[in-house]
Amino acid sequence: MNTEAPVADGSLLPGHPTAVTAVKTAAGLRHVRYEIRGVLARRALELEKLGYEITSLNIGNPGVYGFRTPETMRLAMIENLQISEGYCHQKGIFPAREAVVMQQQTRGVMTASADSVFIGNGVSELIDLCLRALLDPGDEVLIPSPDYPLWTAATVLNGGKALHYPCPPDRGFQPDLAAIEAMITPRTRAIVVINPNNPTGAVYSLETLLGIAELAERHRLVVLSDEIYDHMTYDGAEFVPMATLVNETLCATLSGLSKVYRACGYRVGWASFSGDLENARAYLNALELLASLRLCSNVPGQWAVQTALGGYQSIHDLTSPGGRLYESRQAVLDCVAASPFLQLVTPRGAMYAFVRVDRDRLPDFSDHRFAMDLLETRHVLVAPGTSFNVPYDDHFRITTLPSPALIEEVFSRIDEVLESYVK
Protein backbone atom coordinates (compact mmCIF):
# COMPACT_ATOMS: atom_id res chain seq x y z
CA MET A 1 0.00 0.00 0.00
CA ASN A 2 1.27 3.45 -0.84
CA THR A 3 1.71 5.31 2.45
CA GLU A 4 2.62 8.67 1.02
CA ALA A 5 0.11 11.54 1.12
CA PRO A 6 -0.09 14.61 -1.13
CA VAL A 7 0.87 18.03 0.25
CA ALA A 8 0.01 21.47 -1.07
CA ASP A 9 2.44 21.35 -3.99
CA GLY A 10 1.27 17.91 -5.10
CA SER A 11 4.23 16.01 -3.67
CA LEU A 12 3.85 13.23 -1.12
CA LEU A 13 4.68 13.03 2.54
CA PRO A 14 6.00 9.64 3.69
CA GLY A 15 4.10 7.63 6.25
CA HIS A 16 0.57 8.84 5.46
CA PRO A 17 -2.08 6.90 3.48
CA THR A 18 -3.07 8.37 0.14
CA ALA A 19 -6.64 7.13 0.14
CA VAL A 20 -8.93 9.78 1.66
CA THR A 21 -12.48 8.54 2.11
CA ALA A 22 -15.31 11.03 2.54
CA VAL A 23 -17.40 10.63 5.68
CA LYS A 24 -20.43 8.56 4.74
CA THR A 25 -23.87 10.06 5.43
CA ALA A 26 -26.86 8.00 6.49
CA ALA A 27 -28.79 6.56 3.55
CA GLY A 28 -32.03 7.45 5.30
CA LEU A 29 -31.34 11.13 4.71
CA ARG A 30 -31.47 10.73 0.94
CA HIS A 31 -35.17 11.56 0.76
CA VAL A 32 -35.29 14.09 3.58
CA ARG A 33 -35.82 17.72 2.62
CA TYR A 34 -36.17 20.90 4.64
CA GLU A 35 -35.60 23.58 2.06
CA ILE A 36 -36.94 26.36 4.28
CA ARG A 37 -33.46 26.36 5.82
CA GLY A 38 -31.67 24.80 2.85
CA VAL A 39 -29.65 26.01 -0.14
CA LEU A 40 -31.40 29.36 -0.41
CA ALA A 41 -30.99 30.14 3.28
CA ARG A 42 -27.30 29.24 3.13
CA ARG A 43 -26.84 31.54 0.13
CA ALA A 44 -28.65 34.32 2.00
CA LEU A 45 -26.16 33.94 4.85
CA GLU A 46 -23.27 34.17 2.39
CA LEU A 47 -24.71 37.39 0.97
CA GLU A 48 -25.12 38.84 4.45
CA LYS A 49 -21.47 38.10 5.18
CA LEU A 50 -20.64 40.08 2.03
CA GLY A 51 -22.50 43.05 3.48
CA TYR A 52 -25.90 42.78 1.80
CA GLU A 53 -29.07 43.33 3.82
CA ILE A 54 -31.40 40.38 3.27
CA THR A 55 -35.14 40.53 3.94
CA SER A 56 -35.89 37.01 5.19
CA LEU A 57 -39.47 35.90 4.60
CA ASN A 58 -38.76 32.17 4.58
CA ILE A 59 -39.43 31.48 8.28
CA GLY A 60 -42.26 32.47 10.60
CA ASN A 61 -40.04 33.88 13.35
CA PRO A 62 -41.96 36.67 15.15
CA GLY A 63 -38.96 37.96 17.13
CA VAL A 64 -37.16 38.97 13.93
CA TYR A 65 -39.94 41.47 13.17
CA GLY A 66 -40.25 42.98 16.63
CA PHE A 67 -42.99 40.83 18.15
CA ARG A 68 -42.41 40.30 21.86
CA THR A 69 -43.36 37.48 24.18
CA PRO A 70 -45.97 38.72 26.68
CA GLU A 71 -44.24 40.19 29.74
CA THR A 72 -46.21 37.98 32.13
CA MET A 73 -44.65 34.91 30.53
CA ARG A 74 -41.14 36.28 30.88
CA LEU A 75 -41.79 37.07 34.54
CA ALA A 76 -43.20 33.59 35.22
CA MET A 77 -40.03 32.08 33.81
CA ILE A 78 -37.68 34.43 35.69
CA GLU A 79 -39.45 33.95 39.02
CA ASN A 80 -39.00 30.17 38.81
CA LEU A 81 -35.41 30.08 37.60
CA GLN A 82 -33.99 28.94 40.92
CA ILE A 83 -36.14 25.81 40.89
CA SER A 84 -35.39 25.12 37.22
CA GLU A 85 -31.80 23.97 37.48
CA GLY A 86 -32.46 20.25 37.83
CA TYR A 87 -34.17 17.76 35.56
CA CYS A 88 -37.95 17.63 35.74
CA HIS A 89 -40.29 14.71 35.03
CA GLN A 90 -39.83 13.32 31.53
CA LYS A 91 -43.36 14.41 30.58
CA GLY A 92 -42.80 17.95 31.86
CA ILE A 93 -43.58 19.95 34.98
CA PHE A 94 -47.04 19.37 36.39
CA PRO A 95 -48.29 23.01 36.25
CA ALA A 96 -47.56 23.16 32.51
CA ARG A 97 -49.25 19.84 31.78
CA GLU A 98 -52.23 20.74 33.94
CA ALA A 99 -52.60 24.06 32.08
CA VAL A 100 -52.82 22.16 28.79
CA VAL A 101 -55.48 19.88 30.30
CA MET A 102 -57.48 22.90 31.50
CA GLN A 103 -57.41 24.35 27.99
CA GLN A 104 -58.54 21.05 26.48
CA GLN A 105 -61.33 20.60 29.01
CA THR A 106 -62.51 24.16 28.38
CA ARG A 107 -62.88 23.12 24.75
CA GLY A 108 -64.90 20.05 25.78
CA VAL A 109 -62.14 17.44 25.54
CA MET A 110 -62.87 15.62 28.79
CA THR A 111 -60.60 12.60 28.20
CA ALA A 112 -57.46 14.77 28.47
CA SER A 113 -55.41 14.34 31.64
CA ALA A 114 -51.99 15.40 32.90
CA ASP A 115 -50.78 11.81 32.48
CA SER A 116 -51.48 12.00 28.75
CA VAL A 117 -49.71 15.33 28.14
CA PHE A 118 -46.06 15.46 27.06
CA ILE A 119 -44.03 18.68 27.08
CA GLY A 120 -41.27 18.84 24.47
CA ASN A 121 -38.55 21.10 23.13
CA GLY A 122 -41.00 22.65 20.72
CA VAL A 123 -43.56 20.82 18.61
CA SER A 124 -40.72 19.79 16.30
CA GLU A 125 -39.26 17.38 18.85
CA LEU A 126 -42.69 15.96 19.67
CA ILE A 127 -43.46 15.29 16.02
CA ASP A 128 -40.34 13.13 15.86
CA LEU A 129 -41.11 11.33 19.14
CA CYS A 130 -44.76 10.67 18.25
CA LEU A 131 -43.81 9.12 14.92
CA ARG A 132 -40.84 7.19 16.32
CA ALA A 133 -43.07 5.50 18.91
CA LEU A 134 -45.66 4.62 16.24
CA LEU A 135 -43.96 3.50 13.04
CA ASP A 136 -42.41 0.28 11.84
CA PRO A 137 -40.50 0.30 8.54
CA GLY A 138 -42.92 0.76 5.66
CA ASP A 139 -45.83 2.02 7.75
CA GLU A 140 -47.73 4.81 6.03
CA VAL A 141 -48.66 8.27 7.28
CA LEU A 142 -51.17 10.47 5.44
CA ILE A 143 -49.84 14.04 5.29
CA PRO A 144 -51.47 17.06 3.62
CA SER A 145 -50.06 18.55 0.45
CA PRO A 146 -49.03 21.34 0.89
CA ASP A 147 -47.51 20.31 4.23
CA TYR A 148 -45.13 21.63 6.82
CA PRO A 149 -42.15 19.59 5.57
CA LEU A 150 -40.98 18.48 9.01
CA TRP A 151 -43.90 16.02 9.07
CA THR A 152 -42.69 14.35 5.89
CA ALA A 153 -39.05 14.40 6.98
CA ALA A 154 -39.82 12.91 10.41
CA THR A 155 -41.95 10.18 8.82
CA VAL A 156 -39.13 9.19 6.47
CA LEU A 157 -36.46 9.39 9.16
CA ASN A 158 -38.47 7.01 11.33
CA GLY A 159 -38.80 4.42 8.59
CA GLY A 160 -42.28 5.34 7.46
CA LYS A 161 -43.74 6.18 4.09
CA ALA A 162 -45.24 9.64 3.63
CA LEU A 163 -48.37 9.67 1.46
CA HIS A 164 -49.50 13.19 0.57
CA TYR A 165 -53.23 13.75 0.32
CA PRO A 166 -54.26 16.66 -1.92
CA CYS A 167 -55.52 19.98 -0.61
CA PRO A 168 -55.97 21.66 -4.02
CA PRO A 169 -55.78 25.45 -4.51
CA ASP A 170 -59.10 25.40 -6.36
CA ARG A 171 -60.74 23.99 -3.21
CA GLY A 172 -59.30 26.76 -1.06
CA PHE A 173 -56.62 24.27 0.08
CA GLN A 174 -59.26 22.23 1.92
CA PRO A 175 -58.44 18.48 2.05
CA ASP A 176 -60.05 16.21 -0.54
CA LEU A 177 -61.84 13.59 1.58
CA ALA A 178 -62.47 11.18 -1.29
CA ALA A 179 -58.80 11.25 -2.21
CA ILE A 180 -57.82 10.59 1.42
CA GLU A 181 -60.05 7.53 1.67
CA ALA A 182 -58.71 6.13 -1.60
CA MET A 183 -55.16 6.31 -0.20
CA ILE A 184 -55.81 4.29 2.97
CA THR A 185 -54.26 0.80 2.98
CA PRO A 186 -53.67 -1.85 5.67
CA ARG A 187 -50.26 -0.22 6.31
CA THR A 188 -51.71 3.24 7.04
CA ARG A 189 -51.13 4.08 10.70
CA ALA A 190 -51.89 7.79 11.06
CA ILE A 191 -53.25 10.91 9.44
CA VAL A 192 -51.75 14.36 9.97
CA VAL A 193 -53.95 17.45 10.11
CA ILE A 194 -52.35 20.92 10.02
CA ASN A 195 -55.02 23.46 10.95
CA PRO A 196 -54.76 26.44 10.65
CA ASN A 197 -52.50 25.42 7.85
CA ASN A 198 -48.88 26.17 7.22
CA PRO A 199 -48.08 27.12 4.42
CA THR A 200 -51.48 28.10 2.98
CA GLY A 201 -53.26 29.81 5.87
CA ALA A 202 -56.34 27.67 5.22
CA VAL A 203 -58.67 27.13 8.18
CA TYR A 204 -60.46 23.81 7.72
CA SER A 205 -64.24 23.72 7.77
CA LEU A 206 -66.19 21.75 10.36
CA GLU A 207 -67.52 19.52 7.57
CA THR A 208 -64.00 18.70 6.42
CA LEU A 209 -62.76 17.95 9.93
CA LEU A 210 -65.79 15.76 10.69
CA GLY A 211 -65.04 13.81 7.51
CA ILE A 212 -61.42 13.28 8.52
CA ALA A 213 -62.47 12.20 12.02
CA GLU A 214 -64.94 9.68 10.60
CA LEU A 215 -62.32 8.19 8.27
CA ALA A 216 -59.77 7.98 11.07
CA GLU A 217 -62.19 6.27 13.45
CA ARG A 218 -63.44 3.82 10.84
CA HIS A 219 -59.92 2.81 9.84
CA ARG A 220 -58.43 3.09 13.36
CA LEU A 221 -55.88 5.70 12.34
CA VAL A 222 -54.05 7.79 14.90
CA VAL A 223 -54.91 11.47 14.36
CA LEU A 224 -51.93 13.82 14.70
CA SER A 225 -53.34 17.34 14.74
CA ASP A 226 -50.83 20.18 14.41
CA GLU A 227 -52.63 23.18 15.93
CA ILE A 228 -49.71 25.51 16.66
CA TYR A 229 -51.66 28.42 15.08
CA ASP A 230 -54.94 27.67 16.87
CA HIS A 231 -55.72 31.26 17.98
CA MET A 232 -54.32 32.92 14.87
CA THR A 233 -57.39 33.40 12.64
CA TYR A 234 -58.86 36.33 10.71
CA ASP A 235 -62.19 37.71 9.50
CA GLY A 236 -64.32 35.46 11.68
CA ALA A 237 -62.75 32.17 10.58
CA GLU A 238 -63.66 29.48 13.12
CA PHE A 239 -60.97 27.15 14.38
CA VAL A 240 -62.34 23.74 15.45
CA PRO A 241 -60.03 21.63 17.64
CA MET A 242 -59.68 18.15 16.19
CA ALA A 243 -59.83 16.55 19.64
CA THR A 244 -63.44 17.71 20.02
CA LEU A 245 -64.42 15.48 17.07
CA VAL A 246 -62.32 12.33 17.61
CA ASN A 247 -63.58 9.84 20.21
CA GLU A 248 -63.19 6.29 18.87
CA THR A 249 -59.48 6.44 18.04
CA LEU A 250 -56.39 8.13 19.47
CA CYS A 251 -55.96 11.85 18.86
CA ALA A 252 -52.82 13.87 19.57
CA THR A 253 -53.15 17.65 19.74
CA LEU A 254 -49.80 19.35 19.18
CA SER A 255 -49.30 23.01 20.03
CA GLY A 256 -46.89 25.30 21.84
CA LEU A 257 -45.65 28.76 22.72
CA SER A 258 -43.74 29.57 19.54
CA LYS A 259 -46.32 31.29 17.35
CA VAL A 260 -49.44 32.45 19.19
CA TYR A 261 -47.31 33.53 22.17
CA ARG A 262 -44.33 34.72 20.10
CA ALA A 263 -41.84 32.63 22.10
CA CYS A 264 -40.02 30.57 19.46
CA GLY A 265 -36.75 30.59 21.36
CA TYR A 266 -38.27 29.15 24.52
CA ARG A 267 -38.64 25.82 22.67
CA VAL A 268 -41.77 24.71 24.51
CA GLY A 269 -44.44 22.59 22.86
CA TRP A 270 -46.89 19.93 24.00
CA ALA A 271 -48.73 16.88 22.76
CA SER A 272 -52.03 16.22 24.49
CA PHE A 273 -53.57 12.80 23.87
CA SER A 274 -57.31 12.20 23.98
CA GLY A 275 -59.97 9.94 22.49
CA ASP A 276 -59.45 6.19 22.82
CA LEU A 277 -56.70 6.23 25.45
CA GLU A 278 -57.53 2.76 26.76
CA ASN A 279 -56.30 1.04 23.60
CA ALA A 280 -53.26 3.30 23.35
CA ARG A 281 -51.55 2.41 26.65
CA ALA A 282 -48.65 0.56 25.03
CA TYR A 283 -48.09 3.43 22.60
CA LEU A 284 -48.13 6.07 25.35
CA ASN A 285 -45.71 3.97 27.40
CA ALA A 286 -43.40 3.80 24.39
CA LEU A 287 -43.65 7.55 24.00
CA GLU A 288 -42.77 8.01 27.66
CA LEU A 289 -39.74 5.76 27.19
CA LEU A 290 -38.53 7.99 24.35
CA ALA A 291 -39.20 11.09 26.43
CA SER A 292 -37.15 9.56 29.23
CA LEU A 293 -34.20 8.91 26.94
CA ARG A 294 -33.89 12.64 26.31
CA LEU A 295 -34.26 13.21 30.08
CA CYS A 296 -36.61 16.20 29.92
CA SER A 297 -37.40 19.29 27.91
CA ASN A 298 -36.29 22.85 28.66
CA VAL A 299 -37.43 23.49 32.24
CA PRO A 300 -37.33 27.32 32.53
CA GLY A 301 -39.56 27.79 29.49
CA GLN A 302 -42.18 25.38 30.85
CA TRP A 303 -43.02 27.82 33.65
CA ALA A 304 -44.46 30.18 31.01
CA VAL A 305 -47.11 27.67 29.87
CA GLN A 306 -49.58 28.15 32.71
CA THR A 307 -49.38 31.93 32.43
CA ALA A 308 -49.70 31.80 28.65
CA LEU A 309 -52.76 29.57 28.48
CA GLY A 310 -54.50 31.03 31.52
CA GLY A 311 -53.69 34.68 30.92
CA TYR A 312 -54.85 37.45 28.60
CA GLN A 313 -54.83 36.28 24.97
CA SER A 314 -53.09 39.24 23.33
CA ILE A 315 -52.99 37.40 20.01
CA HIS A 316 -56.58 38.50 19.38
CA ASP A 317 -55.49 42.14 19.47
CA LEU A 318 -52.93 41.37 16.77
CA THR A 319 -55.31 39.45 14.47
CA SER A 320 -58.28 41.86 14.71
CA PRO A 321 -58.73 44.82 12.30
CA GLY A 322 -56.15 47.43 13.25
CA GLY A 323 -53.86 44.80 14.77
CA ARG A 324 -50.43 44.36 13.32
CA LEU A 325 -50.86 40.82 12.03
CA TYR A 326 -54.21 41.71 10.48
CA GLU A 327 -52.86 44.81 8.75
CA SER A 328 -49.76 43.05 7.45
CA ARG A 329 -51.90 40.27 6.03
CA GLN A 330 -54.13 42.90 4.41
CA ALA A 331 -51.06 44.50 2.86
CA VAL A 332 -50.20 41.14 1.27
CA LEU A 333 -53.73 40.82 -0.12
CA ASP A 334 -53.58 44.35 -1.54
CA CYS A 335 -50.16 43.84 -3.13
CA VAL A 336 -51.18 40.56 -4.75
CA ALA A 337 -54.38 42.14 -6.08
CA ALA A 338 -52.34 44.98 -7.60
CA SER A 339 -49.80 42.68 -9.25
CA PRO A 340 -50.28 41.60 -12.88
CA PHE A 341 -48.49 38.32 -12.14
CA LEU A 342 -49.77 37.02 -8.80
CA GLN A 343 -52.80 35.24 -7.37
CA LEU A 344 -53.65 34.21 -3.82
CA VAL A 345 -56.20 32.14 -1.95
CA THR A 346 -56.89 34.44 1.00
CA PRO A 347 -55.18 33.03 4.11
CA ARG A 348 -57.69 32.89 6.97
CA GLY A 349 -55.23 31.77 9.62
CA ALA A 350 -51.57 31.40 10.61
CA MET A 351 -48.86 33.84 9.46
CA TYR A 352 -48.16 32.91 5.85
CA ALA A 353 -49.30 33.51 2.29
CA PHE A 354 -48.92 30.80 -0.34
CA VAL A 355 -48.71 32.95 -3.46
CA ARG A 356 -49.32 31.67 -6.99
CA VAL A 357 -47.65 33.01 -10.14
CA ASP A 358 -49.87 33.33 -13.23
CA ARG A 359 -48.70 30.70 -15.71
CA ASP A 360 -50.59 32.41 -18.53
CA ARG A 361 -48.23 35.36 -18.16
CA LEU A 362 -45.16 33.29 -17.29
CA PRO A 363 -45.50 29.79 -18.77
CA ASP A 364 -41.87 28.87 -18.02
CA PHE A 365 -41.93 29.95 -14.37
CA SER A 366 -39.91 27.82 -11.93
CA ASP A 367 -40.28 28.44 -8.22
CA HIS A 368 -36.66 27.57 -7.37
CA ARG A 369 -35.18 29.70 -10.14
CA PHE A 370 -37.41 32.60 -9.14
CA ALA A 371 -36.50 32.29 -5.46
CA MET A 372 -32.79 32.32 -6.27
CA ASP A 373 -33.13 35.24 -8.71
CA LEU A 374 -35.13 37.21 -6.14
CA LEU A 375 -32.45 36.55 -3.53
CA GLU A 376 -29.46 37.33 -5.75
CA THR A 377 -30.83 40.45 -7.43
CA ARG A 378 -33.33 41.91 -4.94
CA HIS A 379 -32.07 40.39 -1.66
CA VAL A 380 -35.42 38.93 -0.60
CA LEU A 381 -35.55 35.34 0.71
CA VAL A 382 -38.74 33.31 0.13
CA ALA A 383 -39.51 29.59 0.21
CA PRO A 384 -40.30 27.86 -3.12
CA GLY A 385 -43.70 26.17 -3.17
CA THR A 386 -42.28 22.75 -3.95
CA SER A 387 -40.55 22.89 -0.54
CA PHE A 388 -43.97 21.96 0.86
CA ASN A 389 -44.38 18.70 -1.05
CA VAL A 390 -46.73 19.84 -3.78
CA PRO A 391 -46.69 18.53 -7.38
CA TYR A 392 -46.74 22.03 -8.93
CA ASP A 393 -43.96 24.63 -9.06
CA ASP A 394 -45.86 27.89 -9.53
CA HIS A 395 -46.16 28.93 -5.85
CA PHE A 396 -43.94 30.48 -3.20
CA ARG A 397 -44.48 31.05 0.51
CA ILE A 398 -43.80 34.19 2.49
CA THR A 399 -44.44 35.03 6.11
CA THR A 400 -46.86 37.89 6.76
CA LEU A 401 -44.96 39.10 9.85
CA PRO A 402 -43.23 42.21 8.39
CA SER A 403 -44.76 45.67 8.60
CA PRO A 404 -47.15 46.73 5.80
CA ALA A 405 -44.53 49.16 4.49
CA LEU A 406 -41.90 46.44 4.20
CA ILE A 407 -44.41 44.08 2.59
CA GLU A 408 -45.17 46.70 -0.06
CA GLU A 409 -41.45 47.09 -0.74
CA VAL A 410 -40.98 43.32 -1.00
CA PHE A 411 -43.80 42.91 -3.51
CA SER A 412 -42.39 45.75 -5.58
CA ARG A 413 -39.15 43.78 -5.85
CA ILE A 414 -41.05 40.57 -6.62
CA ASP A 415 -42.87 42.27 -9.49
CA GLU A 416 -39.57 43.62 -10.80
CA VAL A 417 -38.13 40.13 -11.06
CA LEU A 418 -41.27 38.74 -12.68
CA GLU A 419 -41.37 41.66 -15.12
CA SER A 420 -37.79 40.86 -16.09
CA TYR A 421 -38.92 37.36 -17.07
CA VAL A 422 -41.52 38.82 -19.41
CA LYS A 423 -38.96 41.09 -21.02
Strand content: 15-25%
CATH fold type of the largest domain: Aspartate Aminotransferase, domain 2
Shape: globular
Radius of gyration: 23 Å
What's the main sheet like?
7 strands, mixed
Superfamily (CATH H level) name of the largest domain = Type I PLP-dependent aspartate aminotransferase-like (Major domain)
Put simply, the count of helices is: 13
Listing every helix as H and every strand as E from the N terminus to the C terminus, the arrangement reads EEHEHHEHEHEHEHEEEHHHHEEHEEEH
Mean pLDDT: 94
- Count the E strands: 15
CATH architecture call of the largest domain: 3-Layer(aba) Sandwich
Q: Tell me the strand order in the biggest sheet.
A: 4-10-9-8-7-5-6
The level 1 CATH classification of the largest domain is Alpha Beta
What class do helices, strands and sheet pairing give? Answer: alpha/beta
- Catalogue the unreliable spans: none
Helical content stands at: 25-40%
**What's the structural domain tally?**
2
Distance between the termini: 60 Å
Structure characterization notes:
- The protein has 423 residues and is α/β, with parallel strands linked by helices.
- It folds into 2 domains: 29-66 and 317-422, Aspartate Aminotransferase, domain 1, CATH 3.90.1150; 84-310, Aspartate Aminotransferase, domain 2 (3-Layer(aba) Sandwich), CATH 3.40.640.10.
- The chain is built from 13 helices and 15 strands.
- It has helices at 39-49, 71-79, 94-106, 122-134, 149-157, 177-183, 206-219, 281-293, 299-310, 315-319, 324-338, 367-378, 404-422, and strands at residues 5-6, 12-13, 55-56, 117-120, 140-145, 161-166, 188-194, 222-226, 250-256, 269-275, 342-344, 352-357, 380-381, 383-384, 395-399.
- The strands form 4 sheets. It has a 7-stranded mixed β-sheet with strand order 4-10-9-8-7-5-6, sandwiched between helices.
- Helix 4 packs parallel to helix 5 and helix 11 packs parallel to helix 13.
- The longest helix has 19 residues, at 404-422.
- The chain is globular, with a radius of gyration of 23 Å.
- The termini are far apart.
- The mean pLDDT is 94.
